[in-house]
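Observation: inputs received (chain + magnesium ion).
Thought: call the complex predictor directly.
Action: predict_structure
Action Input:
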Amino acid sequence: VPPKTPPSGEFALIARYFAPLSRGVPGAYDLTDDAAWIRAEPGLDWVVKTDAIVAGVHFLPDDPPDLVARKVLRVNLSDLASKGAIPRFYLLDAVLPKDIDESWIAGFAEGLGADQHEFDVKLIGGDTTSTPGALTLAVTALGQIASGCMLRRGTAQAGDDVYVSGTLGDAALGLLVLRGGLNRLSPAARDALISRYRLPQPRVSLGPALLGLARASMDVSDGLVADLGHICETSGLGAIVVEASVPLSPAAREALREHPALMSAVLTGGDDYEILFTLPPAGREKVAALAHRLNLPLTRIGAMQSGSGVKVMRADGSERALDSPGWQHF
Ligand code: ADP
Ligand code: MG
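Observation:
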């Protein structure tokens, strides 16, 4: 039960809420030293990624703190997964408004604890400071992979199939629901879309299973068209996407039946946190077997080709015009 007094200094906060999350890591010393050590292991590389989220930009200020915690951790785990790495550790920078309620921090730490358990990762350090500005949280995640094997964006080849995991567009539609849109959807569909926005499902089992199978891989966080565009640019290629093959959840199908124009939000909206990967057509059976083993849809949505840019082909054979390929901060 969190005490009713305001936060009593950063060291007390670290000891009370964050040190328990480092338990079991010998080099973390209960977060009482300047830094932590982790042992290098022969034959393995560390894959590292940091991602920050800001109140009012990436989450809504009144979102439940445990969900905010899980989101900032999971967006990093999604990046590690897309590179084929197994997540092990993370660091946390908590930049908190001075008047923050200690119960918010307690809820936040509770969310981290739940996901540490779910994804088998441990907190090993970070920083805690105050700010006159918006609450900001940054996680730096560390994952392991066989040396030299990190999956890349720039290694697709012309003729590769393009696959995506799970379903696309749910989070973008969920954000629309949270902003008061899509009023005529069933309550179940609205809830399903909102929870995809609030709580990404990083594909941590899929990523490492793509080693030796995928040629190029990345996670979809800024929208399918924008992110496939990154694979195109770095690989020096173009890509074609067959719109009718883009995997949709039942809730997204319901939304599109009502508002067909939302298909462009599905194609360009952010926060999917699925994995986008390419491989030669000879691997199709292996992908089907993997999808079955993981109980996760892996859908072929198009192909890499020579040229540049992403073309989305509609059912009538015409190319879909898109205003913007995806989310950008600047
Ligand atoms: P320094 O004063 O040397 O910058 P700090 O006082 O910021 O060190 O941190 C003390 C210890 O607590 C360090 O091991 C640091 O990694 C850890 N720590 C601080 N803030 C957090 C946090 N938000 N989450 C996890 N560990 C933290
Ligand atoms: Mg400090």
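Thought: report the result.
Final Answer: Residues 127 surround magnesium ion (ligand 2) (CB under 6 Å). Residues 156 and 216 are 5 Å apart (CA to CA).
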